Amino acid sequence: MKKQLLICLSLALLAGCTAKSTPTDTPDPAPPKGVVKLLTDNDGSVWADLRTISAYNGNPNLRQFYMLSSYKPHVLEMKKLHISIRSSRVITVINCTTHERARFERVAFTQPFAQGEVIVITQEIGQWESYPQNSPLGLVGGMVCKIPADRLKPAPARETRKPLLG
User: Fold this and answer.
1) How far apart (Å, rounded) are the C-alpha atoms in residues 106 and 92?
2) Can you list the domains of the chain with their CATH numbers?
3) Deepest in the core among 50, 63, 99, 145, taking most CB within 10 A?
4) pTM higher than the cut 0.85
5) What radius of gyration, in Å, describes the C-alpha atoms of the chain?
């Protein structure tokens, strides 16, 4: 009797281990061209949108671009409102002289890579802070500061869409 029970349990365990499982999270779409991944963790990933590199307020020593954060579906969910924040975008400004950065205007979106509907806009007061030169942000900062100021595109327009929560 014990031998039969042991065989049945072994078969059940083997069958359970070989069963196909379906992932609960759908993978994010491929990033748009010009958007490069800087880092990833269990909650999502951080990207630099190199399509948006420009001088900040016309200052040739300051470069701005969007940093995008894409979140996995379960990370920032507002179940009562049936809204899931899938990504956010923040204006990142690099000071090419002092190697510092500041962040302004964080916008949350319903889709990855700062796409979809605008959920909320928060106006951040930019505070200059240093960053390690050998960090992913330091590598991007070094690269964008090498672009001559006269070759930069105009800055993207600020977000004007009405947010869902605002």
Assistant:
1) 10
2) 35-151 (2.40.128.710)
3) 63
4) no
5) 22
